[in-house]
Structures are given as C-alpha cells and as structure tokens.
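BT1A1 protein
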Amino acid sequence: MMPPRLQMVLILCLRLLSRSEAGQFSLLVPSDPVDTIVGTDVILPCQLAPSQDISSAQVRWSRVESDSTVIMVKKGVESGGLGGRATLSHGGEGLTVGNVSLKITRVHVSDEGTYVCFVRTSSYYSQENLVLKVRAVGSHPVISLTEPPDSWSFSLDCSVSGWYPLPQLSWSDPHRQDWTFSAETETAQDEQGLYSVSSHLQFPRQKDRQSVRCTLFLEHTGASDHSEILFTGAVFPVLLPWRVAVALLALLLVAAVGLGGGLLWMSREERRKRKEARDECLWLREEFDAGKLIPKTEWSAIRDCAVDVRLDPDTAHPGLSIRGQGWKVRGWEARRKLPPSETRFTAHPFVAGMEGFPAGRHYWEVELGEKPYWDVGVAQESFPRNRRVPLTPREGLFALGLRDRNELWALTDPRTRIPPEEIPRRMGVFLDHERGVLSFYNVENRNLIFKFEEKFCGTLYPVFCPGHDPADLVICKLGGAATVQTTLTQEALSALREDLVDVKLDPSTAHSNLDVSLDGKRVHFLEETRRHSVNTYRFMEYPFVLATEGFTSGTHYWEVDVGDLQYWDIGVAKESVERTRRVPLIRSEGIWALGLRDGQEFWALTDPRSSLPFDQIPRRMGVVLDYDAGILSFYNLESFKLIFSFEDKFSGRLYPLFCPGLRGGPNLEIPDVHVRSSHRQEECQGKESRPLLS
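Structure:
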C-alpha cells in the first residue's frame, strides 16, 4: 500500500532552473511504487513541468525488465498498448497540457515492474522511471485433517490459493511455539501468475496443546491472516471407530464453518481493498491534475528564493503595533497618534514590507497559529492607502483572508471560498513576478492553497493584516544565509553585498612568478621568475596567492574580475594547505575552487572534477562563503546565475585563493564594489532592473 497521501512525495529530478530556458521541461512521477490489485484499472502518473502543449511530441512508455515498448505516441497517434489494455489516460487532450499518464485496464500480475515515461520534443527530451506493484487477495487459510488421527499425532494441511505476491505460511501452538520447521510446504503458480501454497504438518498429541494455528503473511505489504483448529478429547486411550467418526465430523464441521467464514471475509476484504486502491488512485489523479502536490525538490527550489521580509513601521496603520525589530505585528484596540505619512495605511489595518519586488522570484513565510482573522498577500505600489476600496486584484491587492477563524477566502472578485481544511498555521508565499504567479502554500504539508495568475505591473510589496486579537502575526526568519540562490535578482545581489569584505592579496604568499599590485587588488603572471625572500607562507609549485585575511565563521562575499583570462583558479584554501610541493587541487587537500583551462575547459575542482557549462564561464564573478553552513557559492554576475556550489563541513581558517594563469596576460582583479541601497523612488523609476555592477 502507498503511504498516507500527505506523505506521498513526487520526484523532480531535473534542475528546476532549466524551466526558465525555452523548450526545456521536467517529468513529475511518484517516488513511491504505485500499488494496485489484479483485475482493477490503474494510472501511472507522468506530467510535464512546466505544463505545455506536446501534441506533436514523441511519447513512449516502456518496461525496464523486458526492454519492450508498452505504448508509443507520435504526433498524437497511439500504437502498441498491452493488447489494448494500455492507453494515455487523458488521450489527446492530456497532451495539450503535458499530461502523459499511462492507464492500464484489467491489471495482470505480469504488469508488475518498472516503467519508463519518455517524452521528446523538437528541442528537448526527458525520461523518468516509476514502479508498479501488483497484488492479489486470495483465499482465507483453511486447515483440514488429511487422515484419521492416531494415538500419537494429527495429520494437518493448511492451504491458500489465488495470492500474489507469494505468501508465507507458518504454524504455531497456544504457547507460541513455532512448528513451521516440522512442516512440508509446496508452492504452485497458475497461468495468471497467482500462487497456491499448501503446508503439511504432523502435529503431536499433548494435553497442553489443544489447538494449532496456521498463519498467512505477506512480506510485501505486511498483511497477515490466520485460521485455528481446536482439538477435543486430545488424549484417546483407544480410538474407537465411532469416536473417530464423531471427531472427523466435528473437524469437518469446524472446517466448513471456517471455510464459509473465510470466503465471506475474503469477499468483503477484497472489496474493501479494491475500493481503497481506487480511492487512492482517484485522489492521486485529482491532486496531480489540480497541481496541489509539491515535490520535495520543487519545494526546495521555491525556498531557495527566500527573502528576509521586514515590516516597515512608516506604512503601519495607526491601530497596529510593530514588534520584534520588524518581524512581528499585532492589532491594537485604540488608534495611536502618528505623524502623517503618504506611505501609511489609514483606511485598512495593513502594514507593508520595507522592500518591494519589481521583478524576480521571492519567497517568505508567515506564522499565523490559531489567529481568527488575518490577511496576507502583496499589494501594488498604487494600491490606495488613505481611502477604503474593495480588497480585490482590480484595486491592486492579491491576498488570502481568514474571517471568524474558519472562513478562508481568496480575495478575488467575487471572493473564492477555500475549504476549512486548507486553513494554514504557517503559510508560505511565493511570488514569481515575471510569470505573473502568486502562490500560497501550507508549509506543514507543502500543499498549494491558492494561486493568483495576473500580469503584474510595477513593484509589489508584501502586506499583512493581523486582525484585532492579541496574538502576533510573525514573519518567519528562514535563515537566508544558508540558502543558495540559483538565480540572482537585484535584491538578492544587494543582500549578498551586505556581507562584502575588503579582500586584499598577500604578496608574502604569492608564487615567484606572480606580480601583486601595491594596493593588493591586482595580480598577473610574469614570464620571468622573481627573487623573493624564502618563507613558509609562499606557494612554490602552483602560481597561487592568498588574501591577507581569512575566516573562521560567518558569511563573507567578494567579487573577482577575470575578464578575458584563459586560465585561472578562484576559490578558498585552508591555512594549512600544502605550499611547497604539488598536491591534487581538491577539498581533501584543503582547496575548494573553480578553474578555467585554455579558455575551454571549465571545471569545479572536485574529486573527480565536475565539468561546468561552457556558456557559464564568467568575466566577473561573485563568491559567497557561508562558513557556518558549510557552503561556498560562485555566481556569474553577467547572467546572474549560480555557477557552482560546494557543500562541506569547514574547519580551520579559510583564505580567498587566486591564480591568474601560467602565461603573461591581463590582470586578475578584485574590484572595488560600491554598495547602493535601494530606495522606493528609484524602484518607481525602474532603476532597480539594472544589474548593480560597478
């Protein structure tokens, strides 16, 4: 059986960054095996993400075990199909939205195995595996007396039939002593693949053993069932014929009653399990089609976009109290006298975040607990703050609202009622500005609650209304320092630059062929070796140089201009790194770095090396060291994308490390970065859309 539906996890194997590139997609399939019963219909889910029309694409379902094609779809035309039992569950209509789920009718035992969902478009392809587990519920265990009992023992058979997978039979007495080792077991499998098992036991007569139990156990599901037979007159000095007849009659009567009850139980149990399987499949299909199931990897990618939202006291309604350095807000009973402000909400009890989002992807979480009234969402900069207007997207507000503790609404026009079971205690808000999507998630079960789809214009600000109860509405700190962003926005880069450190090169560590500028900001390779004083800090074998200062904790950011250099290494090194002899440039030797060779081979210096995309070779690079989280990240500051991230457990002091190559050429430079704080006026003028490169 599949686990409870809220624990059911879908896997998204391709990196979600690929979605932003034209034509690329991922396939969503269940991570756990799909469980079904022989004779029922089953759907093997497979969905493109993001959804797109693939009517002209090639779709193929195949089996791993036999390397055979189950079904093939080319330009909307199906072929194959398990003798007509397999087809796309949604047919051609499903292709228009990227649903290529496979439906198998009248499931056979032979259908069990690993299936491959494969989709190829004109520009891209992807495939994922999923496992189908088949089971059949057979007969109740039946114990029978195979021959008249003698004065020493009973000859017993226990048999079951129609089961899959293979069940196990065991024998035990009232003292829980296992008699299975004394039994002889025979197994048979019919043409349909169903198993029959018979176990024969010669059970000794003893006064303290007046019954014996035969137990059936399915290792695959953990299910079990049993039958028990009672012996009357366990000790017979003489086995008279009439007593034998009476005993046989009694045993046959017990067996008949057991068989009848077993058949009735089997019928009811099979109907119940089939209903459970159908309901489970139906739920999966509904949740899958509704897009409510959020894979762990997709959830992780969403949370990679985490931002620190702080409340702006200058926008808070006079009836609200901002607490906890801008992380908490609660409603007051009386309005306070505050200085006038054009940004302050006076008509609605709202407060906005300090920073707005003119573009990009952003995620934050709000702790709501048992609050009976709240509003959470985003508002356009143009949303009226000093007059009452309908709380609708038309006025520039996109939010969810709770009323009277159990009425949850999406503030659409008209309002959309959301089922009470969706009311969250902790809610995640994900804004994808470019795609025009604002999503709300229940953080406890990763379910999508509601999604606005609009064409957003201008800057959007997080907004909050805590209601009038005394409990705080709390904005959660997501530990952004330990989060690796895969795509930078202006705000994300500004946040990184808050941890900017003034890196200067240490000439006393520089290889003899390196020339370090007097200000410690530039270095290049010299063809002639220079004479330097001998010290234990200088690199003798590799053309490396370290920074003057190292780090043992905290988060630190610096930038490097490599320009058109065809050979370089950039990263960090431990203070104890080997400097007088050649060692592998890997983390076990105390080096974490990226390297370019001859302008063509771009590597992360892992063990073995990790090849990096040629189109991500940077001219200017940002380096983020989060020592405590054990993360070292490199960003291309032209494409604003993550190049590579090392994850390790750092120890000792780490120094920024640089290598400008092995041939004379341009300088490798550590630029001066002028950190500019964003202002709302600049955002209104659209200046924030430009990269903050000095």
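The domain at 5-135+275-292 is CATH 2.60.40.10 (Immunoglobulin-like).
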